[in-house]
Amino acid sequence: MQLNNNVTEFILLGLTQDLFRKKVVFAIFLICYLATLLGNLLIIATIKTSQTLRSPMYFFLFYLSFSDTCFSTSIAPRTIVDALLKTATITFSECIIQVFSLHFFGCLEIFILILMAADRYVAICKPLHYTTIMSRRVCSILVALAWVGSCVHSLVQIFLALSLPFCGPNVIDHFFCDLEPLLNLACSDIYVINLLLVSNSGAICTVSFVILIFSYVVILHSLRNHSAEGRRKALSTCISHITVVILFFVPCIFIYTRPATTFPMDKMISVFYTIGTPLFNPLIYTLRNTEVKNAMKKLWSKNFISDDVR
């Protein structure tokens, strides 16, 4: 399908064309990306090595940090490099790969957040059956299904992108490749493709957001029967999850549930959910979670002790 297109590469306009502002973008993105890698990889290492973080909640948190790392990596490194270039170009194949990776890891994060909500529901509302329902085997199967679902979603995005004929302008007014900006360059009627995009990405974001908010409302309502200490601990965990859900889903819903029109704030909103959310997630989960903080302290102290022995 690519051979039918006259366009072999695209020009990414990025966030700005001003040279000074491009340097600012470079510095901010580099700092945010390094902080994202540090925070998420620290959580991954902590959960992997800690003997106390073996519950399903941390099993899912491990994969959330993994998806955050990959999701940010699919966008940030190229944006950082492009900020140093006078003209940033991306080949058609690289653009398609970026669309796939962006939607794969973004969709994986959505499914992992749903699994985390399900885990909290079972833990709080059905505590006596928790170990049976959320066994390691069940959790592994759920994560595997999340990977398969994400792959299916991303393949649909690729199919939609490859079905677009590009025969004219090749300038993308964005800092990464996505189906929305690509639709504006297609030299054919995009009504059906845009409808499919909204029914795919838009529906996944909106339905998942509604399910997550409803599930946490049910969870919070059920806390009235718990002890004060139990309510405090469960409330702290749920507030962390709700914060992550709002930060990730609200921008996504704004971007993927409307016609293929461009608004001035689109780029900044995209920055928020592609760069900001993966950066905030480690902070939200570590600052509000005593068990994770204690496990991190043990990991650091263990490393310092081993260094001293050497």
Automatic annotation (TrEMBL):
Residues 39-285 form the G-protein coupled receptors family 1 profile domain. Belongs to the G-protein coupled receptor 1 family. Its main location: membrane. PANTHER family: OLFACTORY RECEPTOR. It is found in: Cell membrane; Membrane. This is Olfactory receptor. The chain crosses the membrane at residues 24-45, 57-76, 96-118, 138-160, 201-223, 235-256, 268-287. The keyword Ubl conjugation does not apply. One of its GO terms (molecular function) is G protein-coupled receptor activity. Keywords: Cell membrane, G-protein coupled receptor, Membrane, Olfaction, Receptor, Sensory transduction, Transducer, Transmembrane, Transmembrane helix. Pfam families: 7tm_4 (PF13853). InterPro entries: GPCR_Rhodpsn, GPCR_Rhodpsn_7TM, Olfact_rcpt, Olfactory_Receptors. It comes from the Eukaryota. CDD domains: 7tmA_OR4A-like. GO terms for cellular component: plasma membrane.
